[in-house]
Model the fold of this input.
Amino acid sequence: MRRGLDWTIVRPSGLTDKRATGSWQALETSEPGTLRGTIPRADLAACMLEVLEDDATIGSALGVSS
Done:
């Protein structure tokens, strides 16, 4: 049964309490590449806000690190 919901999964590599860096790397799980080990919580929040505005991310699972 299709409910017509848009979704995006955001999977951080590892959360830290460090200061925000203002940058992050997001890879779709099917893309080649390597993420770093951690991401500050503030950078993850900023990334998630950007992802919410980007229709291209609908229906994808993203790994995120700084």
Summary: The beta strands are 9-12, 15-16, 25-28, 39-40, 61-65. DSSP finds one helix and five strands in the chain. The chain has a mean pLDDT of 92.
